[in-house]
Amino acid sequence: MLNLSEIFYSLQGESTFAGLPCLFVRLAGCNLNCAYCDTGYARSVDGGEEVSVAEIIDRVSAYKVSLVEITGGEPLLQKETAQLVKELLKLNFTVLIETNGSLSIAGFDPCVFFIIDVKTPGSKVSAGFNFANLELLQAHHQLKFVMVDEADFFWSLDFIAEHKSEIGRLETIFSPVTKSFAPERLAELMLAHRVSARLQLQLHTLLWPECVRGR
């Protein structure tokens, strides 16, 4: 069984898949408490429902969509997430997993597109990255740095430089917390420092700024 928060159909708002129609499977429960979390309703397992992998597959299949993202909460907390992924891939879905980066990505089918957070100091999470994952990264995986301020930007540059041999070939994404870090300022810094990462603004929050969930 999986603890499910919600399933909803929207446009992918993040990563290199941004702008594409996507079905989101949001699992409940998270092991971190990030300062900027925008899905607090999925942090506790109390807010979800117990659903079988087979039932989730039935619900997903009803939407007639090819792109599925499993998110949270933290989807890797749940043991049956790997089985859900396996069943989705059998049905030829393209599967994304968005993870907070604190848990191992080992044991998943190599066809999965992992979008892995690297928690910056501004997240207020002291142990937010599983460094063993650096050895498991594949070229189609993506690393995302959510930045609260300029200090997070420079911290991220240092992280990338320190681990260049492991992550140099990956797509890296810089995403500002817009309430505290103006996107235009991040853009200026990226240009000034010749950063090769991708600037990301959450598309769904631009399209539906008043929507708390389901987008």
What is the CATH homology-level superfamily? Aldolase class I
Low-confidence stretches: none
Share of residues in helices: 10-25%
Main sheet characteristics: 9 strands, mixed
In the CATH hierarchy, the third-tier topology is known as TIM Barrel
Q: What order do the SSEs take from the amino end to the carboxyl end, as H and E?
A: EEEHEHEEEHHEHEH
**Radius of gyration over all CA atoms, rounded:** 17 Å
Structural class computed from helices and strand pairing = alpha/beta
CATH architecture: Alpha-Beta Barrel
Number of strands: 9
Task: Please characterize this protein's 3D structure.
The protein has 215 residues and is of the alpha/beta class. The chain has one domain: Aldolase class I (TIM Barrel, Alpha-Beta Barrel). It has six helices and nine strands, in the order βββαβαβββααβαβα. It has a nine-stranded mixed beta sheet. Helix 2 links the parallel strand 4 and strand 5. The model has no long low-confidence stretch (mean pLDDT 96).
